[in-house]
Amino acid sequence: MSLCGFGGVLSSRRSVSSRMRSVSAGERSSSSFGAFAMTNPSEEEQFLTALGRALHDWQLVEMALAKLLASVIRSPDDRVASEMFYAVQNFRDKVAMVDAAVCLTFWRNAAVLPEWVKLRDALGKKSKRRNRIAHSHTWEPDEDEGYRLGPHYTLSEVRKAEESPQSAYLTVSQLASAAESFLRLSARIGAFDQRVRELLTPRR
Length: 204
Fold this sequence. Notes:
Layout: H1 6-12, H2 14-19, E1 22-23, H3 30-38, H4 41-72, H5 78-87, H6 91-105, H7 112-135, E2 137-139, E3 148-150, H8 155-163, H9 165-168, H10 172-200
Antiparallel strand pairs: 1-2, 2-3
Helix pairs in contact: 4-5, 4-6, 4-7, 4-10, 6-7, 7-10
């Protein structure tokens, strides 16, 4: 008997679900913890290191953006801009706040604005990648695949994963690539911030 269309999907996935479990952060049961402990520690450590590095390097992006806000509004105390930045919960709104400050400050500068627009667009794209990393589930290894991030075990997400399995999961190497891209983005923001500071510093 099929319940809400789950019958066909789950029956086709039964062999997979028997070999692997999706484990979200902070929700490991004693049985799933045992499965982690029985696997190759170095493989697990590599995965967790790559995952942690990606999330850490995204924090550098947000810190660089907060610092840029301080520069643009010419706050004598960077802590004021930091309080403003982190008081906003949604990252898209954080970017919109910085965007408003940059555009108002440099609306007559034909060189600065195009550079900022490229950064703003990159922030939008990379934030989607960060969200996918932060909100995916960890899938344990089986005989074919190692640790990876994948979809939640729901009807809609399982169906999407079956349609395009190559893009449904993030491997250790893909997490490492994401971390590198976040690090490069934070460096780009830092370089732009330095240029902004130089432009806004009064000349003697």
